[in-house]
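dumping this here before i forget
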Amino acid sequence: MGTADLARVVEEFEAGLDPTHPERHSLPSRVLGYGEMSTVLAVDVPPLDTWACKRMAVFESEEECGTYERLLGRYTDVLGSRGLVTPDQRVVRTTSPRTGRPVLYLLQRRLDPGLFGNSVVRTLTPEPAACLVTRVLRESAKVWTDHAEDVVVGLDAQISNWVVSTASEDTDWSGVDLLYIDTGTPLMREGGDELLDPELFLRLCPASLRWVVRRLFLQDVLDRYYDFRAVAVDLVANLVKEGRDDLVPAAAHAAAEVVRDVTGSSTDRIATKEVHAYYREDKMIWRLFLGLRRLERFVTATCLRRPYDVVLPGRIRR
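structure:
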């Protein structure tokens, strides 16, 4: 089955979707996860049953959606040219029947959930976990050590954005093949200019807070993905999110070694205290942000009787 068949089922799924309760659909489906700008869905109807569907409902016009789609293709090409391997993917555009606005589905081949980094680290002891963190950062570093054509690439290297080729008790984590799956946030700067429209992120914020986020936080959040040390700290802090704070000391030490190699610093270190402080702040911001978005959804959908087209996470363990 080709792209036309994928588009037909995507359109049928979108037409019957209740963003408040995405699991209540006539087509068998479920939520697999959440990204910065997307909700990842599994629709178990051929030919979508072999794809993970990243739904993005942040666009206000076809022109805006097209600009993003072209940037997505360029970002994936640049990652590949710098040595990162990404999954087979397709893009399908449709229209929300609730808002009349374009919705983009980024389809990526479904992969074994047991091979995702966040699943793997839950089974590891500190030494192999530190080896895996080193391997992920070495792979991530490829986009920092090649800035050809004045293009600077941003990356979210958290452990859940990587898929390993194999996972067993005797896996050599230093040599395992890695797949980077977070292509849906195409962070690139050219000549110092941000190519991804930051307003797309702001549309996921509660409307009443967008000016605050734009003025006080947005630039700092974006800059984090271009700073290799900040990316490394975020990766190690992600282990706490996965319930493995016991892995942090060894992982932080291993991450600091890679950071020193990549940045050329002879003194940089990543302290366990810093990682836990970063995680606590990130957790607090996420809970506040999600709580305000749920409040906005209630006001919009229940009180004002207007469509709220973004799928929000349910209760998340952090």
